[in-house]
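Problem 12. The chain below contains 311 residues. Write out its predicted structure in token notation.
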Amino acid sequence: MSRELRVISNAKPRERQPKPDWLKIKLGDPTNQNHVLKLIEGLNLHTVCQEAGCPNIFECWSDRTATFMLSGDTCTRHCGFCAVNKGKPSELDPEEPRHVAEAVRHLNLAHAVITSVNRDDLDDGGAAHWAETIREVRRMNPQCKVEVLIPDFNGDEAALNTVLDAEPDVLNHNTETIARLYRRVRPDAKYQQTMTLLERAAARRDRERRGMLTKSGIMVGLGETFDEVVELMKDLRAVSCDIMTIGQYLQPHARRLPVERYVTPEEFARWREVGLNLRFRHVESSPLTRSSYHARQQTESSVSEPVEAAS
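Solution.
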């Protein structure tokens, strides 16, 4: 465990701010929620919806949509915001790629979103497992678009290329926060490494004339300023990132970073306007936005031809 996270864990918990009205959540239809839960449990799968405590789980599961999480439920990183278990992961499940593909088929998804924990214990960070899952989903569901939310693979370009070889439709890697806050929020990651990953993915896409989109997202409410988010947006456009998501950080439990402030819907709308002026293909910016929230709609609304990076 990093020294910084120990400081966070041992500090006296800050009193939580009351959530504003705009963060109220609709519970949705329990029938479809139960259907998704039984399917996930029956195939021995994990979802980021459950593991990360996503506030949109009721809405998405009511719509029979889930974001599948590969490589177990234990992460090797120690991010200050994340609810996913930390520690030594279990062995990879060789049946997991097929099980994810079966779940996609049973849910009749037109757009599947797949993510994973960080697996720094593996030589390739789990990249081969990722590629096998993408191919298996495609084999069983040839009409389904595949969006992947990948880890940084510690900057290993060969691991990134292994995933890109499987030809996902959307390559997502979250920036999570502004550069100034990385040491506190993502102590095991590097801001520039994230930018380099997205730049490499877009460059290969352009060389091979693929239709793949690149995407990244951040949380706000951790101490950043409006202008610092704008600078981050410019950095993402400089590496040809196509889609950006911006959502409110919500503290999952007392041992994680506190919410510094609740950002108003009006401020989220301003960031969306800035992003569109920077020529992102799509900007999803609202208090309840998460990486995979309305993912299919984000992709469908994006233009098919590449746009030039902002100067």
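Discussion. The chain has a mean pLDDT of 82. Students who got a different answer should revisit the alignment rule from Section 12.3.
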